[in-house]
Design goal:
By secondary structure, the protein is mainly α. The chain contains 13 helices and no strands. The longest helix is centred in the C-terminal third of the chain and has 33 residues, at about 200-230. It is globular. It is found in: Membrane. Keywords: Membrane, Transmembrane, Transmembrane helix. InterPro entries: Ostalpha/TMEM184C.
Length: about 325
C-alpha cells in the first residue's frame, strides 16, 4: 500500500470518528422529561418561567372576558362566544405542556389545531345568530350581497360575480367551514398515530399529508371570508371583521411563526447542547412567543366582545324577538 492511500485512509478514519463523536454529543431525538430537566440551562429556564407568567396573565384576561360575557351578552350568544374566547387559554395551556415535555410537542400542536378548527365553525354559527338566522338574513339582504370573490380565492375565480343570498349559497359556505374540524381532525389523528408508532416513518409520509391539510384550510378560510364580508357591512355593530381577524391570527401564529423562529434560533444558538437539542430550544422560544401573542389577542378580544352600552338595547331586543 502506497503512502497516498495511507493518508486517505487516515483522513477517512478521522472524519468518521469526528462524525460519530458529533452524533453522540448532538442527538437528534427529543429528550425525556428527566433528561430535559437535568439539562436545563439558565436561558431555557428563564424562557419557561416567562412562558408560565404570560400564560397566567392570559388566564386572568380570559376570566374577565368570560365574566363580561356572562354578565352582559344576550343569552343565545353566550355559549358560542365563550367557546371562541377560550381558545387563547387553551393554546397557552398546551404551550406550557409542550415547553415542559418536549416529546408532547406534536400532540399539543394537534390539540390546539383541532380546537381552532372547531372554534372556526362555532364562530360561523355565532355570526348566523348575530344576523337572526339564515332566513332572516336572506330576507334582509339585497341582490348583490353574496360575493365568493374573497381571499384566498379572489384571484383564482375572477368569473364569479356578486349575486343574491340563497339557502344553497349559505349551505355551500357552511359546508366549506364545517369540513375544517372533520377533515383536519381525521388527518392529524392519523398523523399522531404514525408519530407515536414510528417517528422516522412519520417524517417520510408527512409531506404527503400537507397538500390535503393546506387545501382544507384554504377552503375553510374562504368560507369564513365569504360570510364575514357579507355580514360586516350590514351589521357593523357586532364588529364581525375584528372578531374574525383576532381569531384567524391564532392559526397564522401557530403555523407560520415556527418557520421564522426555526431560522432565528438556528442562527443565534450553538448547534449542540445535550440534552437540549436545537429542536427543543426552538420549541421553548416558540412557546414563549406564542403565549405572549395569546395574551395580546386576549386583550384585543376583550375589547371586541365587550358589549357597548349603545348596542345593549339592540341586543336585548334581538334576543326577545
Amino acid at each position: 500500500m502506497d503512502n497516498d492511500s495511507i493518508v486517505v485512509d487516515e483522513e477517512w478514519a478521522g472524519n468518521r470518528s469526528t462524525t460519530v463523536a458529533l452524533s453522540r454529543s448532538c442527538p437528534t431525538e427529543l429528550p425525556t422529561v428527566v433528561q430535559y430537566l437535568n439539562g436545563l440551562d439558565t436561558a431555557v429556564t428563564v424562557i419557561i418561567a416567562i412562558t408560565i407568567v404570560l400564560s397566567f396573565a392570559t388566564f386572568v384576561i380570559c376570566g374577565k372576558n368570560i365574566r363580561q360575557v356572562l354578565r352582559y351578552t344576550p343569552k343565545r350568544f353566550k355559549s358560542k362566544t365563550i367557546v371562541v374566547l377560550i381558545i387563547y387559554p387553551v393554546v397557552t395551556t398546551l404551550a406550557i405542556i409542550s415547553a415542559l415535555v418536549p416529546k408532547s410537542y406534536f400532540i399539543c400542536d394537534t390539540a390546539s389545531h383541532i380546537y381552532f378548527m372547531i372554534s372556526a365553525y362555532v364562530f360561523y354559527s355565532l355570526i348566523v345568530d348575530y344576523i337572526g338566522g339564515e332566513e332572516a338574513f336572506i330576507r334582509s339582504s339585497d341582490t348583490q350581497t353574496f360575493n365568493a370573490r374573497t381571499p384566498p380565492c379572489c384571484c383564482c375565480l375572477p368569473f364569479l360575480q356578486r349575486s343574491a343570498v340563497t339557502k344553497n349559497r349559505l349551505l355551500f359556505t357552511r359546508l366549506l367551514i364545517l369540513q375544517l374540524p372533520i377533515v383536519q381532525s381525521l388527518l392529524f389523528v392519523g398523523l399522531n398515530v404514525v408519530f407515536v408508532e414510528d417517528v422516522e416513518n412519520f417524517n417520510r409520509i408527512i409531506l404527503y399529508f400537507v397538500p390535503f391539510i393546506v387545501v382544507s384550510i384554504i377552503a375553510g378560510v374562504w368560507g369564513l371570508n365569504i360570510i364575514v364580508r357579507m355580514v360586516n357591512p350590514l351589521y357593523s355593530e357586532f364588529k364581525v371583521m375584528g372578531k374574525y381577524v383576532v381569531l384567524q391570527a391564532v392559526l397564522i401564529l401557530c403555523k407560520v411563526q415556527p418557520l421564522v423562529i426555526m431560522g432565528l434560533v438556528t442562527y443565534v444558538t450553538p448547534s449542540c447542547a445535550f440534552p437540549l437539542t436545537l429542536q427543543v430550544q426552538k420549541n421553548a422560544v416558540f412557546q414563549m412567543c406564542l403565549c405572549a401573542e395569546m395574551l395580546v389577542l386576549s386583550l384585543w378580544a376583550f375589547q371586541l366582545y365587550k358589549t357597548p352600552n349603545k348596542n345593549q338595547q339592540l341586543l336585548e331586543k334581538t334576543e326577545s324577538t
